[in-house]
Design goal:
With 99 residues, the chain is an all-beta fold. Helix content is 0%, strand content 35%.
């Protein structure tokens, strides 16, 4: 959600982070332009149709310079009907970094 007063671009990358192995870029960078006060929805397949049986973490990186962006992430077993409970990452859960 762009809570700002002007539109701008954001970039999103998703990494698969298997335990004991280097992380792997699996999606992105995906660039999305959001007009002011507009929400967008993008989906990314994390498994490519093959279920993941091992312990795997995913890292979601949202690049933007405007703190009025409100990203959130939710995982689905089968989109759009089967939400995996407890997987919502709210805007308040994202950490700000400086590069």
């Amino acid at each position: 959600m762009n809570g700002g007063i002007i539109g701008h671009w954001i970039r999103v990358r998703v990494y698969k982070c298997p335990i004991g192995a280097p992380k792997i870029a699996i999606a992105g960078p995906t660039a999305v332009f959001l007009d002011a006060t507009i929400a967008a929805h993008e989906t990314v397949s994390l498994t490519g149709g093959k279920p993941e049986r091992k312990s795997v973490y995913y890292e979601v990186v949202v690049e933007d310079e405007d703190m009025r962006m409100h990203p959130s992430v939710q995982l689905f077993q089968k989109y759009p009907t089967d939400v995996i409970p407890g997987t919502l990452i709210t805007p308040g859960d994202f950490g700000q970094t400086v590069t």
